[in-house]
């Protein structure tokens, strides 16, 4: 049984759907680390660029990098190491990644 989750492990990334890319050529990917009581814990990463997304229920903590997330209600959140954010299913967001961002998520 592995008790230590490797949040530094390589996360495979791939180009985003061109229909979601606003600027640049961002790539993103995730790696599941564990399932706890039916909830997934994993690591997600996105390279610099701008893309839109529709969120799932999730709480995340930024491990490294920087980005700004804009929500359709007008709120903007600047992200950096240690930022903790709650996303709700169905929220439309725009991610502007300044420096490759890596987060650990619970969804």
UniProtKB/TrEMBL annotation:
Residue span(s) of domain (S)-ureidoglycine aminohydrolase cupin: 39-105
InterPro entries: RmlC-like_jellyroll, RmlC_Cupin_sf, UGlyAH_Cupin_dom
Pfam families registered for this protein in UniProt: Cupin_3 (PF05899)
PANTHER family, per the entry: CYTOPLASMIC PROTEIN (PTHR40943:SF1), CYTOPLASMIC PROTEIN-RELATED (PTHR40943)
Name of the protein in its database record: (S)-ureidoglycine aminohydrolase cupin domain-containing protein
